[in-house]
Amino acid sequence: MRSYTFINVYFVLFVLLTAGCQKAPEPYGACPTPQQVAWQQMEMNLFCHFGPNTFTGAEWGDGTEPEDIFNPTDLDCRQWTATARTAGFKGVIITAKHHDGFCLWPSPESLHTVAQSQWRNGGGDVLRELSEACAADGLRFGVYISPWDRNDPRYGTPDYNAAFVRTLESVLGGTYGPVYEQWFDGACGEGPTGRRQVYDWPLFNETVHRLQPDAVIFSDVGPGCRWVGNEQGSAGRTNWSTLDVEGFEPGAGSPPTEVLNGGTPGASHWAAAETDVSIRPGWFWRESETPRVKSVQQLLQIYYESVGRNSLLLLNVPPDTRGRIDAVDSLRLMEFRAALDTIFDCDLAEGATVSGVARGRRFAAGNILDPVYDRYWAAPDGQLTASLTMELDGPKTFNRILLQEYIPLGQRIAAFHVDILTPEGAWQEIARETTVGYKRIVLTPTVTTTAVRILIDDALACPTLTRAALFLDTIYCTK
Ligand code: FUL
Question: Do the bridges between strand 353-355 and strand 440-459 make them parallel or antiparallel, or are there none, so unpaired?
């Protein structure tokens, strides 16, 4: 009788202890909202610079361009979205209003819009056509609306901020459906003697959140996501999604570009980096630049240095004067897609056996092979280092290691390295890096091995990993 009682007590204790370990780790520090997680999972989006500059060849129009200059001869937004979808993009962001102030929709707040142009006798609306095309092709729709306005006579006066809010309202108020991202450009080229506008950023952000609660707001400093600090397509090799935003604002008041490039570990605000870069030398289409559309090699490098470095890629592919994506650009996008599919279609870690200390069965090491994002490995509380060994399903040859943290619980890993097993049975280091974040793709020499060891050397809290995969890239030359 007594021994039964003991057995019961031990059993209950055992169940309680294991149940305790099965609890997910507490979130660490600043964490993304569900909207920010969904945004990061989009990975690649299309940027479309389109407006009077498409017709004048300027990069920054001065706002005096006659409205009639905007006259696409054959606008077809379904051609943009079909191209984007086939290339693997999940959303499209259009320059609804660039710095020249011209509105691609009939904004009631301006007399410098499609409504004043000869295009479709003033009856056209690019935002309507694009938002409908996005919905039809299963893409999310986003807008760039420049605060700097070289046409609006109110710019530089107290009236401008309220006018800009009404401009936002006419785009975000519902006419064009859900908007997944609002892009606020911090650029202003007025110079020291130009008009000076003190922007009411809190009011602008509140307006976006009020009308589009799910929209992620881009600016140099967020609040939704941040500029990566350059227009070359390169996020920091160390790249934290957290950023210290206290005392900073978009434009001249933003943190130094190196900080934007790498984020701030453990900072109190989540604003992952977005890498915006153009497929052409300029942001707008120009016939003379068609021979300089980026090569597949350049696009792969950008992919590795953006998506592969915990950033979202916003690739600009500007429509031409017809209002279509140039055949050279769309062909290049298809080649880029084909290259990505060739490289990433075959995960060489599939079929591996993974071992390593976990915080319980629910968070077992083997979860890193499961592509379901919400199934992840996690270390026990207080453990800031870890070692996960993957015994591969036979000898495998690879040169790319893909790792993903489970970011809803925060970004934790601060340093890691990767070893492979040599034929002599020793471990040999092939990569040493710092951050992982939502997605990290490490480029290594081409190696053949039967086992891989991921060693987490430092973390801000007990680490998580939701994915580890191995690939062989025979297309992108690192030399
Ligand atoms: C910059 C702008 O000044 C460029 O014209 C372009 O729109 C780029 C994406 O952002 O700040």
Answer: unpaired
Whether ligand 1 lies within 6 angstroms of the CB of 185 is answered as yes
Question: Which protein residue's CA is at the shortest distance from atom 6 of ligand 1?
Answer: 283
Q: Is 230 in the pocket of ligand 1 (CB under 6 A)?
A: no
Longest CA span, the chain: 96
Bridge partner residues of 416 (DSSP): 433, 456
* Residue 398 and residue 470 in contact, taking contact as beta carbons nearer than 8 Å: yes
Q: Which residue type, as a one-letter code, is found at position 448?
A: T
Cβ(440)–Cβ(236) below 8 Å: no
Cis omega (within 30 of 0) for bond into 192: no
Residue 35 phi, psi dihedral angles, 5° rounding: -65, -40
Q: Report the CATH fold assignment for 34-344.
A: TIM Barrel (3.20.20)
CA of 144 to the centre of ligand 1 (A): 10
pLDDT tens over the chain, length 479 residues:
555 555 566 655 555 555 445 899 999 999 999 999 999 999 999 999 999 999 999 999 999 999 999 999 999 999 999 999 999 999 999 999 999 999 999 999 999 999 999 999 999 999 999 999 999 999 999 999 999 999 999 999 989 999 999 999 999 999 999 999 999 999 999 998 999 999 999 999 999 999 999 999 999 999 999 999 999 999 999 999 999 999 999 999 999 999 999 999 999 999 999 999 999 999 999 999 999 999 999 999 999 999 999 999 999 999 999 999 999 999 999 999 999 999 999 999 999 999 999 999 999 999 999 999 999 999 999 999 999 999 999 999 999 999 999 999 999 999 999 999 999 999 999 999 999 999 999 999 999 999 999 999 999 999 999 999 999 999 998 75
In words, the CATH class of domain 353-471 is mainly beta
Cβ-proximal residues to 313 (8 Å cutoff; 6+ apart), any chain: 43, 44, 45, 233, 275, 277, 302, 303, 306, 307
CA 278, chain centre distance (Å) = 15
Question: Which tokens sit at 289?
Answer: 């630049």
Residue with tokens 């870690």: 349
Give me 241's structure tokens: 């999604």
- Residue 39, judged by CB atoms within 10 A of its CB (0-12, 13-18, 19+), counts as buried
- Nearest CA to 282 out of 324, 240, 236, 329 is that of 329
Compute, in angstroms, the gap from residue 214 CA to the centroid of ligand 1.
24
State the closest ligand 1 atom to the C-alpha of 316, by its place in the atom list counted from 1: 9
CB of 50 closer than 6 angstroms to any ligand 1 atom: no
Which DSSP string do the residues of 263-277 spell out, in sequence order? Answer: --TT-SEE-EEEEEE
- For ligand 1, atom 2, name the residue with the nearest CA: 187
Domain ranges of the chain: 34-344, 353-471
Tallying the residues shown for the chain, one arrives at: 479
Distance 107 CA to ligand 1 centre (A): 21
